[in-house]
Design brief:
- The protein has 328 residues and is α+β, with helices and mostly antiparallel strands.
- Helices cover 19% and strands 35% of the residues.
- It has helices spanning 136-144, 149-152, 190-196, 265-292, 311-324, and strands at 8-12, 21-25, 28-34, 40-44, 58-60, 63-65, 72-73, 78-80, 88-90, 93-99, 102-107, 123-132, 167-172, 176-184, 203-212, 215-224, 234-244, 250-260.
- The strands form three sheets. Strands 12-18-17-16-15-14-13 form a seven-stranded antiparallel sheet.
- Helix 1 packs across helix 5.
Length: 328
């Protein structure tokens, strides 16, 4: 199995309309288009005739037409030549499905399981996508250690003055790596504190589990008193999927869910959901800036002075190499 052989969310369904769209996944250029009946199709973005980019073509009758000589292809990659009708051709095609507002693709021969998201009891808040200027491993590193939240994030995370008191627990299975952190919450604005129920004497709790086929993290975040007798009004559940475009750029697709103890919470999320979706967007933009500021984008861990918050990095590195990249 290689890094390509997993389900990846590559494009918002709303972006895929009449025109084909080129995407890059694991260094491979693909073209997505609306095939017969409006179903999403995915092919290698190269015509087998004279190697033109199919993404610069048009869709006619549910078939993707090459702009160079008019050859057409269906969603399975079967091609026809208008100039030589008896000549057939084939371009590599991918299995595509739409879920959670995104088009997901994987190679047809890959035996990957589609990721199931546990969202029972949670309201859907929305989705985001960001392009990170760093390799997959470094992007995952950034999102699963919470030490940087003290000075780089505004709404969630731990207080800088209390970071030395934060408890960090790491555990792993053959297929997952989990980091649990708990300690003094950072100071946030009064209206967020009121809505979230994140009082100044509360702990911020983060229970984050990384999966590796494909690579994604389930984040569970909430606030509670140190003795667990009181809990905040809101729990967040986010799923972040890491989609490598190439060795230098990684897309992060975020699916955001939440639940609260406020009355009529489902209706409430229709009002405040967009506000917190925008806040999450701004928070992730800070991560983009952090990754863009790295002096060295080597994915090797040796030579770094790692602390107790970084133990999970070794666990994820081993599983990315073994499960996601298929290295032995």
């Amino acid at each position: 199995m290689s890094s390509l052989d997993h389900w990846h969310p590559v494009l918002s369904s709303g972006e895929l309309r009449r025109d084909p769209i080129a995407v890059t996944l694991c260094g491979r250029r693909l073209v997505l288009f609306r095939a017969a009946g409006g179903a999403a199709g995915a092919l290698d973005d190269v015509c087998p005739h004279r190697r033109s980019k199919l993404s610069t073509g048009v869709v006619v009758g549910g078939r993707l037409r090459c702009p160079y000589h008019g050859w057409t292809f269906d969603a399975c990659g079967n091609g026809e030549s208008p100039g030589t009708p008896k000549l057939t051709a084939e371009v590599a095609s991918y299995e595509a499905r739409e879920a959670l507002g995104y088009v997901w693709v994987k190679p047809r021969q890959a035996e990957a399981t589609f990721p199931e998201l546990d969202t029972a009891g949670y309201a859907r808040v929305g989705e985001l996508r960001h392009r990170m200027p760093a390799p997959l491993e470094l992007v995952v590193d950034n999102f699963i250690e919470i030490e940087h939240t003290t000075i780089n994030h505004q709404t969630f995370g731990h207080d800088l003055d209390g970071i030395d008191r934060v408890q960090v627990t790491c555990k792993a299975t053959e297929a997952t790596a989990t980091v649990l952190t708990r300690g003094p919450t950072k100071r946030i604005t009064w209206w967020k504190r009121l809505f979230l129920g994140a009082w100044s004497d509360f702990d911020f709790v983060a229970d984050d589990t990384v999966h590796f086929s494909p690579v994604f993290v389930r984040f569970d975040h909430w606030w509670a008193s140190p003795d667990d007798r009181r809990e905040g009004m809101v729990r967040w559940r986010l799923f972040l999927f890491f989609v490598p475009e190439d060795d230098r750029t990684t897309s992060v697709v975020s699916f955001m869910f939440a639940k609260s103890r406020w009355p009529a919470s489902r209706l409430l999320w229709k009002v405040v959901g967009p506000l917190f979706l925008g806040e999450t967007d701004r928070e992730v933009q800070r991560d983009v800036a952090l990754l863009d500021n790295l002096a060295d984008q080597s994915t090797r861990l040796d030579g770094m002075k790692l602390g107790r918050f970084d133990k999970v990095l070794g666990l994820t590195r081993e599983r990315i190499a073994r499960i996601y990249r298929g290295e032995r």
